[in-house]
Design a protein that fits this description.
By secondary structure, the chain is mainly β. The protein is 0% helix and 50% strand. It contains no helices and eleven strands.
Amino acid sequence: VQLVESGGGLVQPGGSLRLSCAASGFTFSSYDMSWHRQAPGKERELVAVINSVAWWTNYADSVKGRFTISRDNVKNTVYLQMNNLKPEDTAVYYCKCPSRNVWGQGTQVTVSS
């Protein structure tokens, strides 16, 4: 069972990034998936969650209206589209399969001018 994130990087405030998380080793389409983040000196927090068939999503208040979680059950991939990024979005972003308690290795997102 493996989750591999990609798409992080350095972006200016107001910019956009799209994170991807490729899953393998389990029946991806059967499980809810989530994105989390951890900023320096802070606890890891839930950012967004999507159910197995992508008709239900939920977001942290801090990212509502700016971030969109989606998934492709053919490609076994979950995405996080991040728009209007702010410096406070700087963190390591992780994807997770909550039911299997499996985490990816994380990808760094830095928002700075």
